[in-house]
Each structure stands twice: as structure tokens, then as C-alpha cells.
Amino acid sequence: MASFATSNIVVLCFVVLVSWIHFNAEARRLGGNISVNLIWYGNFKPSQRAIVSDFINSLASSKLVSPQPSVATWWKAMDKYYHLTNKSSSLVISLGSQILNESYFLGKSLTNEQILQLASKGSQRNPINVVLTSVDVAVEGFCSSKCGTHGHTKSPLVSTSRSVSASKSSRPMLPLMENSPTLGTSVVFMASCIINCTSSMNSETQCPGRCVWPFHQPIYRPQNPSLVAPNNDVGLEGMVINLATLLAGTVTNLFGNGYYQGPKEAPLEAASACPGIYGKGAYPGYAGDLPVDVTTGASYNTHGVNGRKYLLPALFDSSTSTCATLA
């Protein structure tokens, strides 16, 4: 999957500095009303597209979703980062346009430059453009080294990106002092390959265990039984988990000088700093104590619009320096 976006921004960083740490209060953040445009490349069923679009609509749903916790409650945790300075305003996410590219006009093997080209098809006025590729499309670097990437670019051909992987760390998350680039750049959002690798079960790429756990057996962790997907589509569930992870990273570390942990080139961000944690009591190979749908046996931790249930990753809580779960 991938995405591209323009925005107003300030971000966040989790990094260990040997001497003193200082938060750049003058850094600009992605704030205000931001639309998320979905760019579908390849063949997707309407039911598959609905899983993702309902998730985006759930992020900022003004309707009371019952029972709690809701997807909007999960997203509300981002406010803690925005309120670290009194100059920051909260971010409101909404679903923008959806573009279908079913003709494979760029072929079925895409480079990162072509992903940017696809992302440029979406609106260029303060959006986050998300490119999602179907089961029969291969994307450069995905599965073998990453589950998704987000970044920013000043043009469709030049970008800076950060990826989501299965790396772990126990170091504290601290703000990095660095000035933000000029506003008005675009965000690139890549989260491809989840469906591709899940469906093909390619033993060489081993993507299901890398990018779709806990709905598939993990690569290295204890082989506990896989969880049942709440929306009955393992590939799309993996896509939503990685999309949620990348969205959190985009709004808190868009320019690479926000909040993150570890090397700037491969940072652990608001969600990726809490790998494999979905509920209380989580440990390697165990996603945590989660509610289970009595009818379907599916595990989840949030409720969305249209009766949806989703499994979303824990987020690093900047006020307690812990990974916070909803379940």
C-alpha cells in the first residue's frame, strides 16, 4: 500500500540522545482538517474497499459508536502528542476521494517512483494519499524488507520515506531537537504487499508472518494459534493494521524530526514502537487479552462505523512512557 500527501505539520520523535534532550516547541505539525484519499491499484472487491474506507470514516466519526472503545477513541490518543505545546491544534481525519486503477496501466511490478506517480493522482491540497495494491501486484522492497512506508515529497519524483517493520526496542522515546522543513510538502504513504503476500503464502518472502500477524503464524515468535480476522479477510486486516501504524507515524513524524526511537532512517514511531501489542498482557507470540466475537470467534479491540470491528496496534503514550492498549 502506499500513499502520498500534502500537509501542515509538526511531528514527534522517539530517540535516545546521550547528553541533553530538548523538544522543539517551534516545530510545525500536521494539523487541522486533513482528507485521506484512497488510490486502489489493481482489482479489489467492493467488500474489500469497504473495510478500509469504513476504517478511515471511523477515525473521526462524530457519531457515538457503541459499545466502546471505538476507532475514534484509539485515534484520540494522538492528541497527547499535539498538546505537548500550546501552539498545536488537533488533527481531524476524514475520508476524501477514492480512485480506482483497475487497468494496471503501470504494469504489475511497481518501483517506488511509480508508487509516487500513483500517489500524485490524488488531491494535492492538504491530503494524505494512500496507494493500495492488489494481490497480483509486486512493489519494490515490500515483503522482503518492510510492510509499509510513509514519507513526504516536494514533487512526485523526490521523496523521503520511513518504513514499518517488525523491529523491536526497549529504549525510551524522547523528543529529538531539530527544525522542521517548510510546510506545504506532500506526504507519501506506502503500505503495499499485505494482500499479495498473504494470498500467495510465498515461503521465500514469508510476508504473512511478518506483516499480517496475529492473523497468521509469525516467523520467529512462538507458534500460537492465529487469531480469527473480524472482517473475514486476513489480507485486508493486515492492511488496516499497517495503515493504522503508518497513519500514526505520518502525523507524529512526517518529516523525520518529530517523535521516534532509534535511527532516523528506520525509526520506531508512535505505533511501531509497540510491536505485537494489541491488548493487556501481550508478550512475544501473544497479542494480548482481547475481546472475542461470540458469533464469529474473531478477535478485535475497537468498534467502527457500520458495525465494524478492528484490531489496532497499541500506541506509545507520551505521558506515561508505556505502550497503551484499549482492550
Automatic annotation (TrEMBL):
InterPro entries: EXORDIUM-like (IPR006766)
Keywords for this protein: Apoplast, Secreted, Signal
Similarity remark: Belongs to the EXORDIUM family.
Protein name (database record): Uncharacterized protein
Species this chain originates from: Gossypium barbadense (Sea Island cotton)
Gene Ontology cellular component terms for the protein in this record: apoplast
Domain of life where this protein originates: Eukaryota
PANTHER family xref list: PHOSPHATE-RESPONSIVE 1 FAMILY PROTEIN, PROTEIN EXORDIUM-LIKE 5
Biased composition (Low complexity): 154-171
Region span, Disordered: 150-171
Residues spanning the membrane: none
Localization (cell): Secreted, Extracellular space, Apoplast
Keyword Membrane: no
